[in-house]
Structures are given as C-alpha cells and as structure tokens.
Amino acid sequence: MLSAILRRIGLSFLILILVSLFVFAATEILPGDALDVSLTDDDLAVLTPEQLAEMRAALGLDRPAAVRYIDWLSGALVGDFGTTILTGAPVGDIIWGPLRNSILLAVLTTLVAVPVAMVIGIIAAWWRDRAPDAIVSTGAVVGYSLPEFVSGNALILLFAIWLPIFPATITLYTQGPMLDMLVVAVLPVATIIIGSIAYLSRLLRLGLIESLASDYVERARLAGVPERRIVFVHAVPASLVPTLNAAALYVAGLLSGIVVVETVFAWPGLGLELINSIRKREVTVVQAAVFLGAVGVIIMNLLADLSIIALDPRVRRGAGRG
Q: Which residues contact 225 (CB under 8 A, 6 or more apart)?
C-alpha cells in the first residue's frame, strides 16, 4: 500500500509540473510577450523600440523562454510568483488574500453541503422509486440545472431587497477580518450549496443504490443482518468510494474560485481576482491564479485517491500486491 501511495504522490507531482508548463506556455503563445499584452495601444504608440527593449530587459523578457520558465517554476513551487508588470508589486501580496477568501468560501460550502447531501442521498436511495425519492430527484435536477447567476440573483432579490437581511454585495476589502467575512458569506455560500447538494446527493444516491443491489448486501440480508446496519455500516461506506473522485473535483472547483458567484456578490476571492487581472492584462497574476487553482485540483484528487485506498479493501489488496 505504501508503494501505491508513493506512486500517486509522484504522479501528482508530475502532473503539477505539466500543468505549470501548460500555464506558462498559454501566456507565451499570446501575440507579443507579457509586456506587449500588459501595455495599452496608447503606451505602445508613445514608447520607442529602445525604451521597449529596456523594459523587456528589466523584466527579464529578453531571456530564452526555457530559462524564464525554470525561474518561474522554481519560484512558484515555494510560493514566489514574482512581481506584477504594471506596478511591480509582489504577486504573492495580491494573490494570497483572494486565495484565503476562496478557501473560506469552499470550506463553508463543503461543511454544509456534504452532510446535507449525504442525508438527502440516503433518503432518496432508501425510498427508491417512491415519493421521497421522486421529490429529492426532481429537486436535485432543478437545483443542479439552475445557473448560479440565476440562483444568486434570486437570493439577492429575496434576502437583500425584499427582506433586507443580508448585503447584496460584499463591500469588505480583500484582507478583511475572517469573522467579518463569515458574517457576509451567507448568500454566496447558499448560492453554491444549491448546486453542490444537488450534484453530490445524486452521486451518493446512485452509488448507494448500486451498493444495496450488490451480492454482499444480499448475503448480509440472508444472514439476518438488520437493514439499518446494512445501509449505514456496509452500503454507505461502499457507496462513498466511487463518488470520491467526482466529489473531490467538485470541491477543487470551489477551491479554485467560483467565478460566477464571486462576480455576482463581489466576493473578493481568487476567481474575481483572476477576472480583474485579465481585464488589466496582468499576466503574472493570471499565471499565479491559474496555477494555484490547478494545485487545488491536484491536491483534492490525491486526497481522493488516498481515501479510496483507505476505504476500499480491494484497492488495498491490489496495492499490496503491487
């Protein structure tokens, strides 16, 4: 099993290197270089070729792309993403605050959505093809199909305008106190939860139905094991295994920033910072935001793989033979 864990960690690191190469190359293939992308047409019209050459040399853009990639990767692996092109400010100072806020949003959503989705999924599978299952399944389809900008604006209309309980938009600055962020996070979290619960409950329902129809569950029934014990001790843990990877990808999407939700509520997170950086054409910030989002996906996938090894004895036996 240890060898399987080490292989997965090594594969995750290899994927991280490939992702970093893709992120860097995606900005390199743009017309011009990072300086050209960052400057406006008016700037380019007044700057002489000699001045542009001096600016490229100051930013290190005159060096070969391979050398610049190695320098960027070596810094990114230790959290140093360089400086912005327009202002010269450290990218880390710009990115860590929004990253913290996106992680806060993801953690709050996960803490609420996962337990609720498990309860709903178990109810739907327990009363399969009956009224509770029909209600839950219909609600899940509607909730998952509803775009987040629609549900977000509906919540703003209901709880910020008609019933002025929560703020419609977030007015806190990026480095605002964590407690203040928690207070104003109700509507953004509720917006994400609508889709999260619908998605995760459907995954768990399908996995639990498959587990309840398996041979080992039938043998347990024939042996006289109580139905509740079969469901909660045997079927539910087994149904979690096939849904872990999909759930991990979903949570990783939360970590990398829900762009729509952050835009609707002006939540100062990584997704909103990415949009603002694209508008300002700050290539270094865009690289850092995309890279950190990819790191979140890789970490969540790794945790899902390790959880599967821990939960599924068949995987552990296979890993042990490997």
A: 234
The number of CA neighbours under 13 Å toward the Cβ of 249 is: 6
Q: What is the pLDDT of residue 158?
A: 92
pLDDT value of residue 56 = 78
Whether 42 contacts 321, CB under 8 Å: no
Instruction: Give the span between the Cα atoms of 23 and 94, in whole angstroms.
Output: 19
Cβ-defined contacts of 227-232 (< 8 Å, 24+)? 231/122, 231/126
How far apart, in Å, are the Cα atoms of 125 and each of 23, 149, 219, 241, 300? Answer: 42, 30, 19, 16, 27
Residues 32-89 have pLDDT tens digits of 666 776 677 777 778 888 888 888 787 777 788 888 899 888 998 888 888 887 677 8
**What is the Cα–Cα distance from 175 to 167, expressed in whole angstroms?**
18
Distance from the first to the final alpha carbon of the chain = 8
pTM of the model as a whole:
0.79
Q: How far is CA 115 from CA 122, 145, 277, in A?
A: 11, 21, 35
The CA distance from 45 to 42, in Å, is 5
Residue type, 218: E
Give the start-to-end residue ranges of the domains of the chain: 2-76, 91-321
Greater confidence (88 vs 241) lies with: 88
Q: What is the CATH number of domain 91-321?
A: 1.10.3720.10
The amino acid occupying position 240 is L
Tokens of 93: 């100072």
Q: Closest Cα partner for 187 from 170, 202, 173, 199?
A: 170
Q: What single DSSP character describes residue 61?
A: T
